[in-house]
Amino acid sequence: MNDRGDDFDPEDLDPEGLLEEVQEPIARPSHSFLSERPSRRAFWPGVVFALMAAAASVAAWNDSGFKADWIGNPEKIFSGGEWWRLFTSMLLHSDIEHLLSNLLFLIPFGGLLTSYFGWRVFPWLGLVLGTATQALSLKTYPDEANLLGASGLLYVLFGLWLSLYFKAETHLRWTNKLMRVVGFGLVMFIPSQFQSNVSYRTHYIGLAVGLAAGAIYGAIALKKDRAAPPSPPRPRILPRPGGTLH
């Protein structure tokens, strides 16, 4: 190495030419996919479902026979073969508060899923999974129990959204995404008070179904531009021709 303090040659640190330039890491996207404004048309499936639920609920409030024919009941579904009740029971609600509490969340989340992930996710996949959630929940109840409301479907949509958001949001590190998902869950999924006439098991069955289905759908069908970028290669020190590392 040269003894003069004002002369410095990088080759002095690597006299045998053993080190190569380290590759720069791949930059993450600078903005969220949510920065794209959702399509207004995407909210129509949720609006149509809401109108159907409102009409069916009002009819049930005024006609006990109509309610008895549409409500979810384990004996009539699994023993009597009245499978349509798995869907119609999602339309019925006990009162206006029950109806609005579900629809005020179902319309926006259904619209966001449709806009960002396509019509296959909502309404089609969401309604299929909502119906499956009704079946799974009713299987856990005695024959005389009755189930109504779109809460199971709503929690399916929550689960789908969280799983697909985690997969599609590529401008954040996974730890930041996990914190947002957990924060959302703490706010939305822990009730402030427990009511004896609320089927919390249906909520959490729907949430589990939605999370699982969203993870599978995201891994298989999510568009490449929405998928997470590959991890940057780890920096390596390579020998140049003729060099030797110890």
Query: Radius of gyration, Cα only, in angstroms?
Result: 27 Å
Uncertain residue ranges = 19-26, 224-231, 242-246
Mean pLDDT: 84
Portion in helices:
40-55%
Oligomer: single chain
Q: Strand-and-helix sequence, N→C?
A: HHHHHHHHH
Beta strand count:
0
The dominant shape is globular
Describe the main β-sheet briefly.
none
How many individual helices?
Answer: 9
Q: What percent strand? A: under 5%
Distance between the termini: 21 Å
Helix/strand/pairing class, anyone?
mainly alpha
Topology:
Elements: H1 44-62, H2 64-70, H3 74-79, H4 85-91, H5 96-117, H6 120-138, H7 151-168, H8 174-188, H9 200-221
Task: Please explain how this structure is put together.
- With 246 residues, the chain is mainly alpha-helical.
- It is built from 9 helices and no strands.
In short:
Helices cover 55% and strands 0% of the residues.
Sum up the structure in keywords:
mainly alpha; about 55% helix; disordered C terminus
